[in-house]
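Sequence only, no structure available. Ideas?
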Amino acid sequence: MGGQIDTAYISSGYENWKKALEKGRGFRKHNDSQGHAQAEKAYQTFLHAKAVDTQLSEEKDREVSRRQETVNRNRQILQRIFSVVRFLGRLSLPFRGHDETQQSLNRGVFLELVSYLAKNGDKLLAEHLSGAAGNATYLGPVTQNEMIAIVGAEIQREVVRRVTAAAGIFTVMMDETTDVSHREQVAIYVRYVHDSDCSSEVEERLPALVDTAETTDGGGTCDSVVRHLN
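Reply:
I predicted one. Tokens follow.
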């Protein structure tokens, strides 16, 4: 009976208006039916629901926020790893180990120091090491070399700034040397006066090492100096 009454409000309608108004039947019985309750709930939901474009806009904002949180988190992780790179570079310590597998007792200074920080209070770094994919840890040798190159380029820019913009007057010195692989290189030094807040000091820096083949004549030597101090 209830299904027939609900059908009357959906498709078939009423032929006898008197039955619709009878007590315990018609409108009153439909008012207490499950179908009416569901329809009323759907109607109220429709009235209070946000417009589709508003919902899409809010979802887009949430997605942008999630992406920004991921970007900020990755930047914080990279800042920590860069700090390790700068620390080892400042102390002239070797990065790599002979055996960098998980079973090794000495994986090299870089990996051991990162692991030490993660195990001793750096929760963000610990979460990164435990949850990052194998190709997204930022700890591989290629990434290490990229970070070293970035730090080196930044140091070189600061030296060039002090030489050309701050000091203005400087001396260039060049000296040929041989590295451990017996490859001949030319070291380019600059000497200048650096003015700080407290005093003026003579500084001598090594902005570049170039292959000897680049400095076989006067023109090549000049080009190397200009290229690395420009």
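Residues 54 and 60 are 10 Å apart (CA to CA).
Hope that gets you unstuck.
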